[in-house]
Amino acid sequence: MREIVKVTLRLLVIMVIAGLCLGATYTVTKDPIANQELARKEAARKAVLPSAESFEEVALENSGDIAECYRGIAADGSACGYAFSVTAKGFGGDVALTVGLDQGKITGVRIGTHSETPGLGAKAAQEDFYGQFTGKSGALTVNKNGATNDSEISAITAATVTSNAVTNAVNQVLAYAAENFD
Amino acid sequence: MANFKNTFLNGIVKENPTFRLVLGMCPTLAVTTSVQNGLGMGLATAFVLVCSNFVISLIRSFVPSKVRIPAYIVVIATFVTVVQLLMNAFLPDLASSLGLFIPLIVVNCIIFARAEAFASKNGPLDSVADGLGMGLGFTLSLTIISAVRELIGAGTLMGVSVLGPNYPGALLFVLAPGGYITLGLVMVAFNAVMKKLDSRRKGAEGSVA
Description:
- The complex is a heterodimer.
- Chain A has one domain (46-180).
- Chain A is 40% helix and 27% strand.
- Chain A is built from three helices and seven strands.
- In chain A, the strands form two sheets. In chain A, strands 1-2-3-4-5 form a five-stranded antiparallel β-sheet.
- The radius of gyration of chain A is 22 Å and the shape is elongated.
- In chain A, 33% of the residues are buried.
- The mean pLDDT of chain A is 87.
- Chain B is an all-alpha fold.
- Chain B has ten helices and two strands, in the order ααααααααββαα.
- A two-stranded antiparallel sheet of chain B has the order 1-2.
- In chain B, a hairpin with a 2-residue loop joins strand 1 (156-157) and strand 2 (160-161).
- The longest helix of chain B is centred in the last third of the chain and has 33 residues, at 176-208.
- The mean pLDDT of chain B is 85.
- At the A-B interface, helix 1 of A face helix 4 and helix 8 of B.
């Protein structure tokens, strides 16, 4: 009996100390982590909508995979397009995208966190792929043999699922914006 | 000090966790698709291993042997979580490149195996040496495997093209089967070299005696 009490108490001490350490670390790091997250999102919005000086959030309705929308405001105070964050269903899980639009034209696309296969789908995060979207509009399609016209995107070699997922997500944003904003 | 050095080298070569102890196979197969990932996982594991070995060695006489397993797991999981939170808060660049691997460390059996087999029986200094050796041994193994896979699979090393832009790539090596094949072949090579070195050392000792 005494043995059980001793073992339980010692384990309890270890658990309590571990819990206190976790609690203390969480309290100390909570705000910095939230700030980092905000800064990262802000940086992604700036990257896809370079003409915007600041952003204000826009409420969304029935937006599917689109999570957030911000209206870009240029240095002179005029509106200059929108920045959307949208989630695509990739090959290895969710792919976070930020898409910038101005009057129905894509001003930029950036890939955030993803878990695509390194060396294959992960190439979506390289400019060779996401750079293709800039300046395009309408409904985009993926071409495995390389883009032949303005509404086509060259697929990443051996990563058709990822290429399609990203393109479909961008199409969703284009369709949503066309229906609701313009 | 000689002891410290022996314990350290033991983990890198003689008891290399991947090729000799065959521990931590899950991260070994999963993350070695590129050198950057292999190296990152190895270093993150080494860091947690050193810290957890040190703490477990310090509390080894306090922890009753009947409940040592839950106690060690709590210590390791706490460490991993604290490291992850601190990295996310203060080293965001490092966190974005290693972030994926940190939670995986909890389930890496190397950490637990060294806590059980070494840190619970040895002093803090030796345990740190063991953690360093094992951690760097693991890093070395992952780097070798991922270098082979990245080079054959994508024709690059650390993301820099080595075999030229016309290299077609071998998808097999980037995907899971290539991981098994590479691991097997590198393990064979490692053990063949070790065997040769061992027999040569024995031969040298024999001639002296």
